[in-house]
Amino acid sequence: MNARLENLLLGRSPSRGEVILDLCAVIVGVIFMIIIGMRAEVTWNALQWIVALILAADLVGGAVVNATEAAKRQYHGPEARPRDHLLFNAGHAIHLTLLAVVFGVDASVLLIFYLYLWLATAMIVWSPHYLQRPIAFLLLVIAILIQQALSFFPIAWAWLIPVLYLKLLVGHLLNGEAVGKR
């Protein structure tokens, strides 16, 4: 893999261990998507299976990538601004759009979860640094509880919101360093 693509997908100068771990996460995502799809007895066509496997690879792999030091170097350098994090998370609308377009998941429900992602992102990035971690976890738990309580998603996609929010709210937004109150 060339360095530019590696930096884009895995963060700035990932270690060999991070690359291996990231690849393992992608493989786990694909394997579990196959298992979940089979257990849910989905009747997806070939295009739907391809999209499902790409989503699983990106979200599971991305959740792990975003937790690495390489990703922190990429997205939490001195030049990082709250706007950058909002735009990064906004770009993940594609995942929810694919659920609506390719799999017929209710777009209005997906819009609610997308707006919640934006609100949660804003709350985290504009919170005092020492509160960002607990706020991110609280907002992740609330999203999971909302999804579970209201049963919005087909069983094959029940994992998506928790993993998406884990990837973005906890993995991407938190810079990884424990700090005291400032």
Describe the structure.
The protein is an all-alpha fold and 182 residues long. It has one domain (3-172). It is 73% helix and 0% strand. The chain is built from 9 helices and no strands. It has helices at residues 3-10, 16-39, 46-65, 69-75, 82-90, 93-103, 107-125, 129-150, 160-172.
How many alpha or pi helices?
A: 9
Structural class: mainly alpha
**Number of DSSP strand runs:** 0
Strand content: under 5%
H and E order: HHHHHHHHH
Helicity, in percent? Answer: over 70%
Kindly, what is the distance between the CA atoms of the first and last residues, rounded to a whole number of angstroms? 41 Å
Give the overall pLDDT as a whole number: 88
Q: How does the major sheet shape up?
A: none
C-alpha Rg, in Å? 17 Å
Tell me the number of structural domains. Answer: 1
Indicate the low-confidence ranges by residue numbers.
178-182
**Global outline:** globular
